[in-house]
Specification:
There is one protein chain. The chain is mainly α. Helices cover about 75% and strands about 0% of the residues. It is built from 5 helices and no strands. α2 packs antiparallel against α3. It is globular and about 30 Å long. It starts with 6 loop residues before the first helix and ends with a helix.
Length: about 80
């Protein structure tokens, strides 16, 4: 239901706008539709990053990077999570 290539950008925008509910909803729908996709777990990690639960965010960013080692958005978010 989502244009997967745009999800990292959408997550970043929702984080900047502090749209917790929308990001939670999108992450939930992505995981429900495709639990084997790195971008789904990236969205979950983005939600936890937004609500400042950094250990959980790192867990899901790690999962995303393990699923797709070339998914650069997740590596960048992982670094931001450590710096926060």
């Amino acid at each position: 239901p989502y244009y997967v290539e745009a999800i990292p950008l959408l997550c970043s925008v929702l984080i900047e706008l502090d749209k917790q509910g929308e990001l939670y909803h999108i992450a939930h729908k992505l995981v429900e539709a495709n639990p084997d996709s790195a971008v789904s777990w990236y969205a979950v990690g983005s939600y936890y990053y937004l609500v400042k639960k950094f250990p959980q965010a790192r867990k899901y960013f790690t999962k995303a990077t393990q699923m797709d080692k070339n998914f650069s958005a997740s590596w960048i978010a992982f670094g931001h999570c450590y710096s926060a």
